[in-house]
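Help needed: design a sequence for this.
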């Protein structure tokens, strides 16, 4: 090869260096040539048919019924469906929509859609646009190829989707084509949940029922619904698409399987909150604009800790909507980035050695009521003693639920991607604990230590400062970034959720755990109220007991420290580091009894989720193993052989020229040794693949083997590759390097 020919990698590097920012576009697609920008509020939600548009378009009584069903989380009244469908159709057609689809969330972590045309024909075979109430409400995709974990094999083969009116319909614009999307649940013919949304909605209902019952005992009447709120902070990487395209590992597995560490990583701590580069800024702005059209309230953007890592967060919303919106956030990022020559990486650990990405799920509980309680955040300390007693009761319920079901919560975030994150010194560990902050820790410990015999509850509470709790501003709680589940003033932040995950499942399990905590407290309170007339006395006693019992789950220290692992073990907190053992927590007797008792998942539905997730883990691992093997065989080894050959040629030439010192020989021998090391590790990798393919029938055994022997084999191959990367001539190396992908020029 003539030395003047640049390697493909070098050619790309040059091309990228010459790129400029693609101008951001207005919401209607034209460039900002005159510098005029539309205010966000002028087009926010223009592609959704939400409450505002419905109020304008629907007859008042229909609108009221619809809103009532949305507000109370009830099914849509079939009588009003035809009117709603008609109005939606007219709105969609006026906006150039030709097709509609039920938009749902099968157990793939992504969303699914199947488009149908509005086009139909009247009795004279004249074309017309039609969209009926039944099409709005229900659809039957041929859904036999979605993962069901055996559910459909044992029952019906078919499933259907049904509109969830709590989430507004929206118009999806892809490549100039506009499609009406109807957010839906996906269920089998006997009502079995085939998707992520159905159990989540059930868990919200259960939490609501339990919370209302408890509130009534506390004297808070007139509550119609307690709903949870969600504000997910989404972390992601943006890298140049050309690099992405040249990395089979990123394309196939979403993460780099080889790659030597660059001399500079995140040690300068200069990326976090730094200025956003122009090309990236243009891209992020366009992602936001697309999301604004869909009514997704993105309000925060900033650089994250790792180079080329960013974060986007919305204003919090009711959880069902927040979950749907997060799916839109992920899909929109992936789509819009391409327009800017970029690739959004949502994997939990795209690059070894630097921070991975999480999705901090801020979560709380709020009230829908026809009185002054409406809109109240149950995790916000209040102004009166009663409000603060209520606050403590709900806090106690969350702590209790999280403590009791910490294994289950860990299972909800168990994926092959998150495995690389949890437990490394950058993300919350696999041990689920709760951070409360100084003030509340003192308060809770004070309650536990209190001697209720000596004085009444009221006096005790006054003494502890409960009567006049200050607003616990976020900034007052020391921000322990290492905790997987932290109280931040008026909400909890579930930080261990993976960046690429659907939030539905982790939140379903959290809702269930908290519903259980609420039920326990309610029961204890009922028993106590039989013994005493004073609600305050009873509450204090119950809260005290509950706080005491959940003490082990509270941890204020550094969750990354090695000592915490030992300490947690002493406290009896589980530490499931690997995905298979974490997933096994789904099907323990305790988890099963919780979820079936609440009616969140039947035994079969739960079993199916365990299967789907275990299978997914095995598939993810096998994809990585195969990809790595192919990269080694067709990219890394050939590059190393070429380099060894060049050294040999050079040595022979030096010898022929009578040169005495020929260090090329040592260099070639060193490369040869590294090649041998790689080839032997690569053979072990091939053995693992072979073994796994033969074990496929036995999920447990296969997953266990892959998470240990399989992961070790990948690590060993990687180490050998990375050594070679550091010696093979740069222009021969076929894979974009970390420094190139992470530090755009
Ligand atoms: P930080 O990065 O400091 O944790 P951010 O401002 O990036 O905070 O994100 C905080 C998130 O928490 C936002 O999405 C915000 O809307 C959300 N949030 C605030 N209050 C609540 C609440 N009551 N329930 C759920 N999420 C909330
Ligand atoms: Mg944040």
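Sure. Designed sequence:
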């Amino acid at each position: 090869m003539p030395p003047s020919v640049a390697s493909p990698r070098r050619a790309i590097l040059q091309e990228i260096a010459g790129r400029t920012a693609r101008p951001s576009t207005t919401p209607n697609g034209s460039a900002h040539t005159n510098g005029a920008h539309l205010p966000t509020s002028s087009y926010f939600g223009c592609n959704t048919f939400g409450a505002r548009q419905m109020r304008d378009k629907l007859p008042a009584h229909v609108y009221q019924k619809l809103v009532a069903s949305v507000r109370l989380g009830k099914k849509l009244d079939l009588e009003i469906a035809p009117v709603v469908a008609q109005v939606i159709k007219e709105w969609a057609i006026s906006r150039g929509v030709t097709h509609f689809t039920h938009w749902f969330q099968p157990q793939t972590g992504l969303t699914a859609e199947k488009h149908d045309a509005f086009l139909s024909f009247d009795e004279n075979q004249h074309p017309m646009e039609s969209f009926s109430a039944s099409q709005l409400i229900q659809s039957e995709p041929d859904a036999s190829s979605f993962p069901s974990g055996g559910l459909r094999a044992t029952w019906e083969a078919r499933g259907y989707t049904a509109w969830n009116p709590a989430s507004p319909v929206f118009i999806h614009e892809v490549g100039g084509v506009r499609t009406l999307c109807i957010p839906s649940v996906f269920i089998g013919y006997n009502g079995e949940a085939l998707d992520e949304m159905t159990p989540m909605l059930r868990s919200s209902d259960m939490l609501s029922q339990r919370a209302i019952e408890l509130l009534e005992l506390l004297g808070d009447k007139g509550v119609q619904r307690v709903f949870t709120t969600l504000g997910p902070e989404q972390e992601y990487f943006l890298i140049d698409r050309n690099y992405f395209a040249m990395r089979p590992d990123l394309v196939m597995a979403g993460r780099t399987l080889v790659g030597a560490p660059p001399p500079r990583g995140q040690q300068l701590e200069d990326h976090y909150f730094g200025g956003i580069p122009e090309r990236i800024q243009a891209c992020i702005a366009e992602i936001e604009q697309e999301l604004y059209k869909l009514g997704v309230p993105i309000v925060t953007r900033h650089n994250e800790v790792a180079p080329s890592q960013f974060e986007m967060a919305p204003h919090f919303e009711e959880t069902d909507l927040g979950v749907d919106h997060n799916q839109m956030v992920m899909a929109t990022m992936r789509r819009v980035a391409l327009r800017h020559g970029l690739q959004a990486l949502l994997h939990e650990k795209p690059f070894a050695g630097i921070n991975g990405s999480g999705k901090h799920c801020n979560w709380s509980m709020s009230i829908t009521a026809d009185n002054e309680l409406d809109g109240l955040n149950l995790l916000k300390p209040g102004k009166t003693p009663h409000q603060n007693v209520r606050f403590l009761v709900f806090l106690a319920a969350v702590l209790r639920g999280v403590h009791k079901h910490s294994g289950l919560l860990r299972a909800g975030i168990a994926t092959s991607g998150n495995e690389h994150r949890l437990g490394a010194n950058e993300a919350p560990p696999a041990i689920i604990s709760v951070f409360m902050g100084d003030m509340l820790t003192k308060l809770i410990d004070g309650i536990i230590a209190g001697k209720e015999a000596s004085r009444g509850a009221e006096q005790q509470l006054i003494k502890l400062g409960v009567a006049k709790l200050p607003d616990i501003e976020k900034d007052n709680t020391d921000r322990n970034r290492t905790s997987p589940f932290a109280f931040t003033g008026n909400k909890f932040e579930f930080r261990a959720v993976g960046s690429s995950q659907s939030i539905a499942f982790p939140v379903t399990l959290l809702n269930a755990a908290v519903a259980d905590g609420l039920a326990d407290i309610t029961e204890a309170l009922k028993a106590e109220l039989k013994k005493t007339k004073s609600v305050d006395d009873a509450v204090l006693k119950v809260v005290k007991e509950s706080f005491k019992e959940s003490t082990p789950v509270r941890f204020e220290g550094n969750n990354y420290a090695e000592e915490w692992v030992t300490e947690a073990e002493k406290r009896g907190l589980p530490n499931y580091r690997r995905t298979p053992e974490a997933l096994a927590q789904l099907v323990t007797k305790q988890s099963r009894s919780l979820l079936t008792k609440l009616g969140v998942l039947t035994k079969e539905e739960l079993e199916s989720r365990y299967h789907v997730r275990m299978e997914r883990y095995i598939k993810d691992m096998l994809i990585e193993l195969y990809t790595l093997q192919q990269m080694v065989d067709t990219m890394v080894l050939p590059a190393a052989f070429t380099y060894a050959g060049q050294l040999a040629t050079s040595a022979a030439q030096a010898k022929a020229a009578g040169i005495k010192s020929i260090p090329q020989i040592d260099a070639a021998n060193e490369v040869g040794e590294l090649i041998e090391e790689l080839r032997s590790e690569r053979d072990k990798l091939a053995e693992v693949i072979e073994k796994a393919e033969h074990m496929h029938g036995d999920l447990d055994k296969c997953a266990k083997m892959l998470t240990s022997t399989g992961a070790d084999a990948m690590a060993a191959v990687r180490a050998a590759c990375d050594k070679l990367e550091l010696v093979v001539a740069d222009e021969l190396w076929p894979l974009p390097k970390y420094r190139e992908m992470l530090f755009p020029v």
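The first strand starts at residue 48 and ends at 49.
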